[in-house]
Amino acid sequence: MNFIRHLSDVSKISNQAVGQKVKKKVIEFTTIPSIIPVTAKFIDKSDFSNYSSNIPDHSVKQSISSYSDSRRLPQVPTDIKGVDPEAYFGLTFFKGMNQIPLLIDNDFFNLKFIPKQHFIAQYRKSNIAYTFQNHGGYKLNDPELEKSVNSYKGRYKANTFFMEKLTPFSTAFGRIRYRKLLKRLLFNAVKEVEDKNDPKALDLAGIYKFSFKRVPNTSEEIDRCQGDLLSSVDKILHHKQLQTKLIESYRDAKFKNGDLNNLRSKATLYNTVRPQRVPGFLPKYPFLNPKPVRRR
């Protein structure tokens, strides 16, 4: 019994010793010293003389983006932007827009050009902008196959395959892919004019309005689309009859039914509140005339 009691006493003493050591360590790690030694000095500009930073210096006036400069053409395909949603609506429904002649009407798309002088072109986001309509298209991207699908009355007619739209424009992937392709082809056409140092090259500024029909699949079909776009930009610059029609279209439509004032009141000029106060601010619509126009 005495031996067991002795072991119990030793165990208590040992546990107390361990507990005191743990408590001491906790105090050391959690206690804030009353006096913190100050060994650092104040940092000044000389300490960063050899330090380079990618943070922009907002005290220096930033240059305008290339795509929003009226004196420059796009340098990469992504420099071709879109338009305001209200301007997109106006390109389809404003009176007088049907007077703008077609530049291209092939198996894959048709194209209209709205010159930079047209009032609706003020609401473009880049010097050369484009819009598109995804409506239409053929099932399986072929008119003959669409007829076959529609006329099929066999045992598999109730299959979910025949219940789908089956057009390339019915999926986001198909629409995005086609838009990227036409943007690249349009950029190539404009770039070729710029590389030739054509003095009229800046007359290509404006909005290119595409309406999609089919998606070119083969290299021959893509080359055909590229050739049509090359001929279209040449027409804009050098076809006098087309130039006359374009001038008439924007002169006649300029103040019709107060469209300009309605568009200005509905357009989303800023995405945030007072963005002009943010360093490096660039206007959303760099070609917009700041002065409102009175309705006639």
Summary of the model, kept short:
Helix content is 38%, strand content 8%. The protein has 296 residues and is α+β, with helices and mostly antiparallel strands. A hairpin with a 3-residue loop joins strand 1 (102-105) and strand 2 (109-115).
What's the N-to-C terminus distance? Answer: 116 Å
Share in helix: 25-40%
Share of residues in strands: 5-15%
Instruction: Summarize the helix and strand pattern as letters.
Output: HHEEEHHEHHH
Q: What is the average of the pLDDT values?
A: 77
For the sheet with most strands, the description reads: 4 strands, mixed
Question: Which shape, going by the Cα principal axes?
Answer: globular
Put simply, the count of helices is 7
Cα Rg = 34 Å
Stretches with pLDDT under 50, minimum 5 residues:
55-63
State the strand order across the main sheet: 1-2-4-3
The quaternary state of the protein chains shown equals single chain
- The secondary-structure class comes to alpha+beta
Count every beta strand, where a strand is a DSSP E run of 2 or more residues: 4
